[in-house]
Amino acid sequence: MRTIAGLTGLAVTTVSRALSNHAQIALDTRENVQRVAREVGYLPDRAAQRLKTGRTHVISLLLDPHEEILGFGTSLLHGLTLALRGTPYHLIATPNFQDEPAIDPVNFIIRNKLADGIIFSRTEPFDPRVRLLMENGFPFVSHGRTDFSTQHAYVDFDNSAFAYEATRRLISKGRSRVTIILPPKRLTFAQHMLHGFMTAVREAGVEYEIPEAVTLDSSAGMIRDYVNARAAEPNPPDGFVCGGEVSALATIAGHNDRGMVLGREFDIVAKQTSRLLSHIQPRVETIYEDLAAAGEQMGQLLIRQLSGETGTDLQILQAPRFGVPTSK
Amino acid sequence: MRTIAGLTGLAVTTVSRALSNHAQIALDTRENVQRVAREVGYLPDRAAQRLKTGRTHVISLLLDPHEEILGFGTSLLHGLTLALRGTPYHLIATPNFQDEPAIDPVNFIIRNKLADGIIFSRTEPFDPRVRLLMENGFPFVSHGRTDFSTQHAYVDFDNSAFAYEATRRLISKGRSRVTIILPPKRLTFAQHMLHGFMTAVREAGVEYEIPEAVTLDSSAGMIRDYVNARAAEPNPPDGFVCGGEVSALATIAGHNDRGMVLGREFDIVAKQTSRLLSHIQPRVETIYEDLAAAGEQMGQLLIRQLSGETGTDLQILQAPRFGVPTSK
DNA sequence: GAAGAAATTTAAAACGTTTCCGGCAAGAAG
DNA sequence: CTTCTTGCCGGAAACGTTTTAAATTTCTTC
Asked: Which of A222, A261, A280, B140 could be a cystine partner for A218, CB 3.0 to 4.6 Å?
């Protein structure tokens, strides 16, 4: 900046103002300074800006260990970086480890001003992270909704619509006893999925059951064993709503262990977040959730908050994509 | 720091020195200052440190769009954060987009001192990123080796050993015409895999072929179509070495399209990087590459470089894990 | 053509560290 | 008792920005 000041014969102050397009600097001065800056390849020193202003230009993505599976985090990350491209914001990955509560990194980031905004997922109805962030007026976007009365920015997939449609498809295939592999109950979207499922079940008056022993967080091996064991008992379910691809595979495997095959003894409708299930035989029916898009939307919402927009419409509910996603 | 200076009755300078354990400060002074710092919950202001010293305390992970698939990046990231835990270093994800050359972000990071060190993958024999980084004396660790005469830090999986063992297994199953789905030729590990494959082929004197039309970067759909088409021609291969899980699934699917089943008309030995293939039927034989471990090792190597260690033994070659990985 | 208003620019301080260099004690040597 | 060395500590400048408050120029208006 000093260099530019020398080159243009202006004071450093003026250069600073001109570069941030302050209105009180004459228009041609601004243009001139910006041109010179471009010519000498000027780039602001982030450290100095941060020291002076307190803004870090950093957005922190809280990564849950569970999200390691199948690139859940990667897809979000990909969308996020897309949204952050061209902005001065950097994305830093802040994993929380299994041995510490999910709120610790949030606390740490707030207290030490390590970021300007936070993005996280696996939201709970009364998520302590949300409470803490709101109390501190700290900008954030959650993946998933809460039950707090105060509104906050979120992006969520309409898991209720997903489960409803998935269940209806099973029923329309003639399945008479449906079940659903849910996320852990404490997560908000478990309730949403359950709601969609139950709505469809009640409408059709079909039998159903809700497994207690396994969730989407269970290992594939556990789900497989559970499905296997359940299939041996009387009156097993013949229609499965699977909230993830891994659980769908495990469900198939558990049945195969007993010689039962997909499409004959049972059917599955699964949530698809990658292109994984497209190539296994027999074909699993899926409904698509676009995580990269969710990441991008979260990034955009956060940026809007950071640029001072006071949030009225900072909530996004992604509709399930019922068609098969176009090939890559 | 000013607070601590007040509390201890020392000067800011002394506090600074005491906190960084400078030897010219009396030992009990150091201990006292550090105790007080702990009590008041002092945390250094990264921005100020960075401004003053020029060190960013940031490590940049260059993410390739191809790595989105199946959490390749996520696993590395997970291991990396493990290695960085307890250090003052932050991990920032720097994706390079499809429309820009892979060297651009490197250039950008070096020129603008955006990080203290860089980690990346998909290394080529004469990788321009490696050349640039070495020219600038910029610390980095690559995932994969190069052919430069000057040594540099890397972590690599022994893909030659993998392909050799995989091919031998196919042959021992009685397969008489083997093939291998390789990464794009320009990547170093394509050569390594080819070498291992060819060694096994020559030893056994078995027939082989190398597909030109598809690589591990090809979409699953393309691989599936290729395999399908090839199976219809005369003298198709009956043993497949697959460098990734998706390609293995696609290979199975391509055969299934013609009614050919795994274990009967053909066999596969695949590289496994997730727990994905464990639950599909029929079971695919795999050899495991531990990407999280690779990430952790890369992190450690980089930290060692950053703490001034001059690299003699900064190269790590991961041996393939032949047994089935223990269940999660 | 001078006073006041408006428009434009600038000097200087500050953000929280690190570091160069100098200073002050206390003990050792003469 | 003076001088020198050694061991600790402190003053002040600097890193590259932003911002407050003030100074300078230019424009109106009578």
From this structure: A222
